[in-house]
Design goal:
The complex is a heterodimer of chains A (423) and B (166). Chain A folds into 2 domains: 247 residues, Aconitase, domain 3 (2-Layer Sandwich); 141 residues, Aconitase, domain 3 (2-Layer Sandwich). Helix content of chain A is 30%, strand content 19%. In chain A, the strands form 5 sheets. A 5-stranded parallel beta sheet of chain A has the order 4-3-2-5-6, sandwiched between helices. In chain A, α2 packs across α5 and α6 packs parallel to α7. Chain A is globular and about 60 Å long. Chain B is α/β, with parallel strands linked by helices and 166 residues long. Chain B has one domain: Alpha-Beta Barrel (Aconitase, domain 4). Helix content of chain B is 31%, strand content 22%. The model of chain B has no long low-confidence stretch (mean pLDDT 96). The chains are: A alpha/beta (423), B alpha/beta (166).
């Protein structure tokens, strides 16, 4: 048989026939995930499609993450609509404060290796770090999957990204992800899967991999998949076990493109306003005054991110810079509980930060803090589009948690991480 | 399907937040309301000047970013029947077809603001004629499954009729 990529194997397994890139197939879906952003429209469509029951209620989840907490009557009504629907049909709803949908799926081990997840949130691709095919869709595809348990997919071509070598201590997974998005460009992975491989992978924990899978959608990736290895097993062991069937690419599988990334050559990166692929070395934008720092989201809102941000923040002086607002939003309740238990949030709060409800937060201007007009924001998030956070004149820079933490103390984008001393 | 209209030209990488902001979507998902904010952050006079029958013409990667489906329905609500772009982000492409909005991937660099265009879709072959400049551009054929969805006016109509994909 002709060798297959991971995507070709997973989708073949879900279509019941052997598939290769370019084929179109009807695939069965293992997990269907909606949010308060995509769910209300999907419920409308489900009913208009004549949907009377969910294909398999335990496989249908909603997370109330974009409007967390609901701060208008309308957003509360969206939540009520989802709750009523879920109660009637037996779907699961994760409440306000439980966290971002794909973060919850990963933390609770709700998707297994080799499985197919359809998430009505473009960052559903995050879950590909668990060696599954996780693809983001809109509300109509969500509704169809809820009703039929199926989705039609064109089997994507695959870009193989080989990571070699070792990162320098000041280079975070976010820097690697930004460098890749910068190299690919905003459409460089359109319609394609990014498949990661290489001897550098073992030094990426499962949480590190989530950052890469997450950000590759900013290059247009349909999925971004890691191999299954001891890091996957270790992460899932503490979370109810590793129930999937790992999938690896065949030797000789066809790749549309090969990218080799020598991790030892990378330096910290920043994406400039207003494109996530406008990526430059940190040193190129150092000194830019910052009025708001946001640490959170499905890219940079996990416990390790807050720990790295706090460490750099402390090295920068440990007090929020005068006139700057430091906003922290854990990606999930689990993250928030860990940060409360280990004292991270208390240290940030006593230094002048504010903490908002776990979820998407300020990322897309739907909950949390909206920057003021003309303000410059430094963020651990994934998108810096004009008006993304709610102000059309705010300038948004994207960087690693450590760079954001240091800037929160100094009030400027720092020239580097290691040499910065207390100000 | 044949649509004739005036070209409204946009650039590359028009993301869905630019088409309609997430913050507006927080207030309502009713496209008839949201259409007043179509492209507000990048083309502030677009919503007021758009006329039913206008056609959006864009560069590469149209509809990148969030997969939010109101980005497709708000374009339809403004009376736009087709988007012609050099390329589409996959989530927008699906959402457009799933709502019966024609998404035509073809070369657009020669089309100027205000050109009269005729978009024709027949048996999966889509052609864009620039009546102002006397040019014709051909799009890649649309997959059969998408054509069937489009013929039913979108995925809702398709599933209401067939009940499933098989």
């Amino acid at each position: 048989m002709t060798p297959q990529t991971i995507s070709e194997k997973i989708l073949s397994g879900h279509a019941g026939r052997t598939l290769y890139a370019g084929d179109i197939a009807i695939c069965s879906v293992d997990l269907v995930v909606g949010t308060d952003g995509s769910g209300p429209m999907a419920i409308d469509y489900f009913e208009q499609m004549g949907g009377s029951r969910l294909y398999d209620p335990p496989r249908v989840l909603f997370s109330l993450d974009h409007y967390a907490p609901p701060n208008t009557p309308q957003t509360r009504a969206f939540h009520d609509r989802i709750r009523r629907f879920a109660d009637r049909h037996g779907a699961t709803v994760f409440a306000v404060g439980d966290g971002i949908s794909h973060q919850i799926v990963v933390e609770r081990g709700l998707i297994g290796a080799g499985e197919l997840m359809v998430g009505a949130d473009s960052h559903a691709v995050t879950c590909g770090a668990l060696n599954c095919f996780a693809v983001g869709v809109g509300s109509s595809d969500l509704a169809a999957a809820m009703m039929t348990g199926k989705i039609w997919l064109r089997v994507p071509h695959t870009i193989r990204i080989t990571l070699t070598g070792r990162r320098a201590p000041d280079v975070a997974p976010k820097d690697v992800a930004l460098a890749l998005v910068g190299e690919l460009g905003a459409s460089g992975a359109d319609y394609q899967t990014a498949e990661f491989t290489g001897d550098g992978l073992l030094r990426f924990s499962l949480e590190d991999r989530l950052v890469l899978s997450n950000l590759l959608v900013e290059a247009g990736a349909k999925a971004a998949i890691f191999p299954h290895d001891s890091n996957t097993t270790e992460y899932l062991a503490a979370r109810g076990g590793d129930r999937g069937s790992p999938v690896q690419a065949d030797a000789g599988a066809h790749y549309a493109r090969e990218i080799r990334c020598d991790l030892s050559t990378l330096t910290p990166r920043v994406a400039r306003p207003h494109q996530p692929d406008d990526v430059v070395p940190l040193s190129e934008v150092s000194g830019v005054p910052i009025q708001m720092v946001f640490v959170g989201t499905c890219t940079g809102g996990r416990a390790v991110d807050f720990h790295e941000a706090l460490d750099a923040f402390a090295r920068g002086g440990g007090r929020v810079a005068r006139g700057l607002q430091l906003v922290l939003t854990p990606a999930s309740r689990e993250v928030e509980e860990r940060l409360r238990a280990d004292g991270t949030l208390a240290r940030f709060i006593s230094a002048g930060a504010i903490v908002t409800t776990a979820g998407c937060g300020a990322c897309c201007g739907t909950s949390g803090v909206i920057p003021g007009d003309g303000m410059t924001v430094l963020s651990t998030a994934n998108r810096n589009f004009k008006a993304r956070m709610g102000s059309a004149t705010a300038q948004i820079y994207l960087a690693s948690p450590a760079v954001c933490g240091l800037a929160a103390a100094t009030g400027r984008i720092p020239p580097a991480l290691l040499t910065e001393s207390a100000s | 399907m044949i649509f004739e209209g005036r070209a409204r030209v946009l650039g590359d990488d028009v993301n869905t937040d630019y088409i309609i902001s997430s913050r507006r979507k927080r207030e309502t998902i009713d496209a008839a309301v949201l259409k007043h904010y179509l492209l507000e952050s990048v083309a502030p006079d677009f919503a007021a000047s758009v006329q039913p029958g206008d056609l959006i013409v864009a560069g590469g990667n149209f509809g990148c970013g969030s997969a939010m489906e109101v980005a497709a329905t708000v374009i339809q609500a403004a009376g736009i029947r087709a988007v012609i772009a050099r390329s589409f982000a996959r989530s927008f492409y699906r959402n457009a077809i799933n709502n019966g909005l024609l998404a035509v991937p073809c070369e657009t660099s020669s089309i100027q603001e205000g050109d009269r265009l005729r978009v024709q879709s027949a048996d999966g072959v889509m052609t864009v004629r620039n009546l102002t400049r006397g040019q014709a551009m051909h799009a890649a054929p649309i997959p059969a499954i998408m054509l069937r969805i489009l013929e039913e006016g979108g995925l809702v109509g398709f599933l209401a009729k067939y009940g499933g994909f098989d």
